[in-house]
Structure formats: C-alpha cells, structure tokens
Amino acid sequence: xxxxxxxxxxxxEPCDLxxxxxxxxxxxxxxxxxxxxxxxxxxxxxTSVMNHLMEYPRHGFLVVSQNVQDFDHPAGLFQSxxxxxxxxxxxxxxxxxxGGWSLLKESRQWLGRNVESVGAGSFKIAxxxxxxxxxxxxxxxxxxxxxxxxxIGQPMLLIIDELPDLILNMRRHNEADLRDFLGWFxxxxxxxxxxxxxxxxxxxxxxxxxxxxxxxxEVDLINDIAEEPLPVLSEEQVREFVQRMLSCRGVDFSQTVxxxxxxxxxxxxxxxxxxxxxxxFRSWRxxxxxxxxxxxxxxxxxxxxxxxxxxxxxxxHSRISxxxxxxxxxxxxxxxxxxxxxSDQGISRRAxxxxxxxxxSERGETSDSASMRSQFNHLMRDLENDFYVSECSKDQFDxxxxxxxxxxxxxxx
Length: 413
Ligand SMILES: Nc1ncnc2c1ncn2[C@@H]1O[C@H](COP(=O)(O)OP(=O)(O)OP(=O)(O)O)[C@@H](O)[C@H]1O
Ligand SMILES: [Mg+2]
Description:
The protein is an alpha/beta fold. It folds into 3 domains: 20-227, P-loop containing nucleotide triphosphate hydrolases (Rossmann fold); 235-305, Helicase, Ruva Protein, domain 3 (Orthogonal Bundle); 326-412, Arc Repressor Mutant, subunit A (Orthogonal Bundle), CATH 1.10.10. It has 19 helices and 8 strands. Strands 2-3-4-1-5 form a 5-stranded parallel β-sheet, with helices on both faces. Strands 6-8-7 form a 3-stranded antiparallel β-sheet. A hairpin with a 2-residue loop joins strand 7 and strand 8 (396-399). The structure holds adenosine-5'-triphosphate and magnesium ion. Adenosine-5'-triphosphate binds next to helix 2 and helix 13.
C-alpha cells in the first residue's frame, strides 16, 4: 500500500482519509431521508469528508459542491453551483439545455462567442453576462435551478461548505436580505419534503451556525436539518495514526512515543496531530536515531515558536474577532489568556463566570444578571464547540489542546 501523505492544512485526499469510514456511512444513510448539517470546529476534517462524498457518491447521487466562505450574496452561491454543474456534469447540463433551460443555453452561447477573451473555464462570467441583474433576480434563478435539477430524474446532492460564513457576510451587509434568504432556503428544503424530493442539501460549517442563527432569533430556520457531528478522534486513533505514519516511513521510535504524542495533544485537533507527527518524522530524517518521548517533548515545545505553525495557530486567535460578538469577544480573549496561565487543573467554571461578570461590568454593560449569565453560558458553549476549552475534571476548564495552550501563554498570556 502507498504510504499516506502528511496533510497540514489542505483537505485530506479521499485515498488517504483515515478514521472516517463509519461517519461517511452515517452521512450517506442520513441523506437518504434528510438534509444534513456536518457541524465541527475549524480544522477537524469537514471538507475532507465532503470531498470523499463527492469522489465516491452512493445511492445514485450526482454531487456538486461549493465553498461559500467568501460570498456575501446567494447569487454567488447559485452561480457557482451552476458553474460546477456545467463543468463537472456536463452531459447533464447539456441535456437540460436541450430541454430548453434558457439561462444555461444563453450562457453557453455567450461563452462560445467569447472563449478567446475569457477562457473556457469562465462559465460564471457567462452566467453573469446573460443576466446583468443576477443579484436582484437570484431567487428566480435559484427556483428555476431547483426545478431543472428535479427534472433530471436522478438524486442530486448539493454541498454547501462554510454556510455560516455566507450568513455572517450577509449579516454585515443587510440583515433583511439575510432573513429573506434563510426563509427561502428553509421553504425550499421542506416543499417538497425530502421524502418526495430528489434534491438533498449538505451543509458544512463550524458549530457557530446555531449560535449565529440564535442571535438573529432564527434558530428554527435550520432545525429541520439532521445534524451529524463529526466525531472527535479517539486517543486510540491518534496512537494508530502516529504508529502508522512513522512505521511506514521506517522511523525507529520507542513504543511510548504514540501515547506521549496523544497526551501532549490533549483533545486532538486532527490538524495538530498531522503537524506534530510530520515534525517527528522530519526530525528523525535530519538525524536518524531512535525517537523517544523526550524528542516528542522537544518537538512540541519547538512547535509553539516555529515559523511554520505560527500562521496556523494565529488563525485560532483571530477567528474570535470574526465570529464572536461583544461582549463575548473581548471576554473570550480575557478568559483564554487567564486559562493559558493556569496549571493543568485549569480554572473552575465559577471563577471563569466571575471573571466574565467583572469584565462586563468594566465595559459598562448594563444588562440584568440573568441575561449576563446566559451570555456567559453562551460563551462557554462556543468555546467548547470551537475546541478552545474543555472540561478537564468536574467543573474545571482548561485549553483543549496542549499546543494551543502553550502558544497562547507565550503570545497572549
Ligand atoms: N481523517 C483525518 N485524519 C488525519 N488528519 C485529518 C483528518 N481529517 C482532517 N485532518 C487534518 O485536518 C486538516 C484540515 O482538514 P479539512 O480541511 O478537511 O478540515 P475542515 O474542518 O474543513 O477545516 P476548515 O475549518 O479550515 O475548513 C488537514 O490538513 C489534516 O491535517
Ligand atoms: Mg473546510
């Protein structure tokens, strides 16, 4: 068997994807009856699973997938879905054109006339040229797209990766448009109901989607979707990963190394697991020897300051200012900085709540104490869902990831 590659940031290729077989079975099973949400924190492997679904479809599904992280309007989403359909399932698109779908037909004609200037892979440009008022007309195009997709007589899976980002981007521009989109999206998911529909939606994103909608008072807009949480890798899987990646490269290591890596990782973020194991391999390659737990410790300590992991860790810091609203945003920075300085015992929930309340009062927040407590609970839930913290013993909280804790202490403690 070919040795699996290391992946440090990009999605894992389907042929190298480990530990997700059961989850992939569950998702396909769930999709037979429902629309599905894959909720999981950053960098845990959502897109890798989605790419697998796309590469190895089941139950006769045609799959089209789009990441909408940088979009701020539903028009962009549908233009991209249509472009993907045209490029990845061209015979289906051609059939729909022959059947009289004028938007696709005119876009293809435009592309034919302009291919020299815009290049062949510019179907999205062609779509926009065909209707200069796309943004205003997005709903009409979207409804027509769904009608056409239902006519092909084959189940169709539409994967929307990072939907919470589209929602946040829209919220920044125009909340009324966002509510309109969410209302429309819910309606088309339920009418017809999935049992009588050939279209399925698979939505991916960080768990903040529920919080985001909660803040808009619109959480019921997604409660028809089956949530399939991406399983957290077990300690055993981490050890298996280390064992396999090192053994197949001929690395000599003492039997305690996989366990040591698992302990130092804390709650394993798959991305850190890859990064550390790759570092162990590189260190051995530079200086072939029997790798020991002491080497593992040195590598962990070195990673916290290494240039390579800097940007990746910084991401966890910056994303709070993007996704958390005040006063939770500044409170999150405060609590994480305190936690980074705490011992392995962490800090009690009660003490964290105290810090939170004090912080809010210094900021001049005037809400009543019940709503402050609910803000605190909300913050703790987000920090847990996003993998920053976890309960290390009863009512005591600590950083989930050992790497992140050391890094936070160094730069923000
Ligand atoms: N099954 C797996 N086994 C080992 N490592 C994995 C696995 N899945 C993901 N990873 C690691 O996580 C990284 C990110 O994977 P992926 O892009 O699929 O996650 P994501 O949740 O979509 O991330 P993001 O939140 O950035 O979109 C990969 O580069 C790899 O290091
Ligand atoms: Mg992703």
